[in-house]
Amino acid sequence: MIKENTDLIKYSNKGLYCEIADIWIDPHKPVKKALITHAHMDHFTLGCEEYISTYETSIILKERIGSEINIKTFDYGKEFKINGINISFHPSGHILGSSQIKFKFAGEAWLITGDFKRQKDDTCREFEKVKTDYLISESTFGLPIFKWKEPQEIAVDISKWVNSTPDKTSILFCYSLGKAQRLLNEINKANFKNNIYTHSSIYKMNNCYRKLGINIVSTKKFDKTQNIEELKGSLILLPPGLNKGSYLKNSKDIQTSFASGWMTIRALRKRSGYDKGFAISDHADWGGILKTIKESEAKNVFFHHGDSEALNRYINEKESINVLHFDSKK
Hints:
This protein is an alpha/beta fold. Helix content is 24%, strand content 24%. It has helices at 55-65, 151-163, 179-189, 200-211, 246-249, 266-272, 286-296, 309-318; strands at 9-12, 15-18, 23-25, 33-35, 50-53, 71-73, 80-82, 85-91, 99-105, 108-112, 134-138, 169-173, 196-198, 220-221, 235-238, 254-259, 276-278, 300-304, 322-323. The protein starts with 8 loop residues before the first strand and ends in a 7-residue tail after the last strand.
């Protein structure tokens, strides 16, 4: 365990907490003041008195939940002080507006990666290398089995999958924020010529991205009252929660797929019920996590959000880095 005088960031049932600044990072429950790494709802909770994020994250959040929230914004790299602690946001490459958060206090630096990826993505800022003493890294895909293909390879695979069955309507399930926009960008670069339809939640986020200066290919809005069988040869992007929709169960001549890093695991692909799985993720793979740790030059690493057992073992054996663990009692 780390010593008490260097225990700047702690973990509790509300999430990561910086006691000196009295501020939470992506809290699970309402708190007085919260730093938000990005606009996915598993990293945000309603009811906080004040939020702090990047400008892009604030716009996306307001689009998703309403403009009434009290949110303050700072540009990437702009330091601001809270109770003597210097804090700054740095691009994490996860989705538009997503951030790593750096804390500097008493000559030490702490960095929380938040969700991040190392692959190139034209729909958001590229991951920024940040040096730190203490690193709190996500580890969603912290196993050697996870090694991502280049996104253009996946886009070509999707295009071939659709074009190989012109007598069917192809449905691609993907997350409405971040993943959908990235897929549309990559598919467009692959010169996909078929009609593309998107669910209203995806269509809404596409428009939000455009307002923030990101070029997203135009799509048609999908209305579930439409007869899917009349859209043969088309590609429809839907959020994963609609996979069990009754209108799909009753539809003929459709093929389904899911875009997720978890589709790397063959057993999951088989159990998922999708006809096809495309392994593309907005999180770092095994190599990306290790690369980030090395480039940060951190000598002390915590893992957060994921199974870190394999990472712990590898780093302990191969690197001169301390793998630390949050005290669950705090």
